[in-house]
Amino acid sequence: MRRYGKHTDEDDIRQRPNRKGNRPRTNIRPKHEEAVEGMVVTVDRGRLTCLVDDRLVTAMKARELGRKAAVVGDHVAIVGDLSGEKDTLARIVRIEPRTSVLRRTADDDDPYERVVVANADQLAIVTALADPEPRPRLIDRCLVAAYDAGLEPLLVLTKSDLSPPDELLELYGALGVPYVVTSREELESGAAVDRVRKQLDGKITAFVGHSGVGKTTLVNALVSQERRRSTGHVNAVTGRGRHTTTSARAIPLPGSEGWVIDTPGVRSFGLHHVDPSRVIHAFPDLEPGTEGCPRACSHDEPDCALDQWVADGHADPARLYSLRRLLATRERTEGD
Question: Which of helix, strand or coil describes residue 169?
Fold first, then answer.
């Protein structure tokens, strides 16, 4: 049966209605030239709080960004309601190029990378000297992640009133990593705040550390009263701290150009994303000794020149042990 006459045009042809009522998809994306730049300061269940000028604006990621996620520290382009008033929602349409990305995996055999923060300049590795006991291997892993991300490491030792820092400082002395030692009394009185602040001024510093080391207590001492978080205690039975920070948050330092980014406490710092050949770069006290190594040396074999390098007193044997432990963990992952 003939559906149309002899002289049809486009107006005569029936079109199937679009049930969803939306526009046809296109590969052409808007440029959003009117977008305003902001900085992501918190991320919570799909809602991102961004600092735009002097206002905090709640926003969500635009569909056109796909799976690309914005994280704390990102500089983003935002459109929509930028008033920052209650119940308003803006839209993030672009994530600007990052200057640095700090990543970690849950374990060495976990291929899923978690971006901790973006655009940080410095990584403050917070470690308690006691209660809980320091974990040098975790410090080593954080150092590897810092060097891999291009961040300057800073060692912050807390609770010096419970144990002296000499042994730990001697272990990392050859690395030349800057450090600050604090006690609980100094934090309460404010005496240690100025020493820590000098290392943070003008920089964006991400704070990482094992639960219970006093990381959040330290951050609270650095920031204004209204931006402080609750703190927890160390379990007397397990020696582990309780997570009081559940998501990363960027906080401006009062009277300074610097920022601190408080991150959740970690019990492991996987390095699945780090190429094993780059791990040696996190050990500058050992790296010169590799010049005499055979080609493609794993640094854990009889002909490795690092054994003689350490025997000659150029580095602490504990540092070589840390390097080989990390490399052995990475090798097992690569062989899985």
Answer: helix
Residue 276, pLDDT > 80, answer: no
Q: Which of 90, 46, 102 is nearest to 69 (CA)?
A: 46
How confident is the model at residue 331, as a pLDDT?
A: 54
What's the Rg (C-alpha) of the chain? 26
Instruction: Write out pLDDT tens, residues 210-259.
Output: 888 989 889 988 986 544 544 444 444 344 444 445 689 999 998 888 99
User: Across the chain, where does the E strand assignment appear?
Assistant: 36-44, 47-52, 55-61, 75-80, 90-95, 101-104, 114-118, 122-128, 152-158, 179-181, 204-209, 249-252, 259-262
User: What is the C-alpha to C-alpha distance for residues 223 and 193, in angstroms, rounded to an integer?
Assistant: 10
Q: How many residues does the chain have?
A: 336
* DSSP H helix total and E strand total for the chain: 7, 13
For the cut 50, the answer to whether the pLDDT of residue 333 exceeds it is no
Kindly report the pTM of this predicted structure. Answer: 0.78
Give the residues across from 234 on adjacent strands: 241
Give the residue-averaged pLDDT of 140-169: 92
The β-bridge partners of 203 are none
Residue pair 252/197 in contact by the 8 Å Cβ criterion: no
Distance CA 228, CA 251 (A): 9
Nearest to 78 by CA among 44, 14, 33, 120: 33
What is the DSSP secondary structure assignment for residue 109, as one 8-state letter?
T
**CA dist., res. 160 & res. 235, Å (int):** 19
Decide: 79 and 50 in contact? Cβ < 8 Å.
no
